[in-house]
Write a structure and sequence with these properties.
With 473 residues, the protein is of the alpha+beta class. Helices cover 29% and strands 25% of the residues. The chain is built from twelve helices and 16 strands. The strands form three sheets. An eight-stranded mixed β-sheet has the order 7-8-9-16-10-11-13-14, with helices on both faces. The chain has a six-stranded mixed β-sheet with strand order 2-5-4-3-1-6.
Length: 473
Amino acid sequence: MTYIVTLPGPELAFIRSKLRIEQRLTKALPKTRFANEGPRMVLVLGDLGADPQLGTAQRRLQLEWMGVVAKVGTVGAVDASITIYPLRECRTPIDFDGPEGLLNTLSRPIYEDFNQAIIPGSVGRCGHETWTAVETALRQERPDLADLLDWLLAQAVAPGLDPDDAAELRWLEQQDALRSIMRISDFPLSAAAAWRRPASPDAPYLAGLIPQPVEHSLIDHDIRIAGQPFEMFAEWQGSTRTRCDVHILEDAQGRRLEVANVNATPVEACLGTDMIYYHEPTHSFVLVQYKRLDPKGRSIRVTPQLRQQIYKLEQVEKLSKSPTSPSDWRMGSDACFLKLAHWPADTATQPVDGLVPGLYLPLSYIQLLLADDRTRGVRSGAQARYLGYQQVERHLVGAQFVELVKHGLAGTVQTSVEELRALVEGRLDAGQGIMLAAERSGESGKTRQARIRKRGSKAQRYKHDIADQESLF
């Protein structure tokens, strides 16, 4: 269902500066006009009113903004509200009325259906057939909008992924790993917002990302596409043994995030996903290995294979050195974690910035848990062990984990790029899919903390995320 927001021209002009900064709009509508079906695209029309060339009594509509319904709320007993996010401006407004208007290119039934959705000062809706015709006309009239339409539609019709399918489970794990990396590194989440299913089930998740269109704006957006990737990433890209997709971001201060999604194993033989985040200025990394909880029991059995994987992660942690300076200090020696993830039944409804619910467990904690009676199985015998919500009373959640890593309070100490390369090669040989990110910058520890704190408040974090919406992977 496509929504049509029609606002008086003066009102739209008055809030234009605010919309350009926030790129978000919330609008009330009667509950009877809301329908949760089809692509939830939004067209924002400005009614410029009387025009001497068209006649004093004739409206004059222009398409000025397009967006996606990101959230639905309730306003009192009879009204609902829609939050449009992301919301993007059409830099050159498109005439919908008049002899040269886009509506005149539509068939009579389509025109009438769209016309009834135009409610001055309010929100109307039109059906899928009408939207398809309008979309086609928009692409023909304004080919320069094709990339923006593709990017918005990929979010309006987000593909649902089935965690019971092996290929889609790997994509879900890699999707969550990517979102975690974006949060840790403080780069805009919008860079990972639009995605379509890759043609091959063996392809990495990054293969399906749709880049954001770059548009001119009054805002000085500080995120841009960067140049050549980290040396090891380029090496994997040129290899016939691996499938490697790389995306790069860089801000105005030269802080650079390079993300590589590497698969070296067909999906049926893949053992799972590793997320590795490497902060090059401090030579520190964290590794998160994904495990899926049983959706009913919300637990996982500790099999001999899992114990072996935990043992291998313990060997990984030995790459860490002893701290020799204040910047080397961590809250503990744990650099490797298991994420026991609990995917919702409908993954398409998960917000684009949301991390999958789950338990983040550091290795030292896992060893204590496996030696405790509370993880013993009941029906499967006393020797069986389980980890999950019922067995683990305390655990880290996504937000806590992100903050620990972001502030440099968790991770290895003095791990070189060469050691990181050897680690990734070994993990690939073991059958893991890898989502690897390297953050590179010249900022000092003091500058890093100042940047994080500045963006840490809710208001600052909101402004940062919105202001970076026109960035590009």
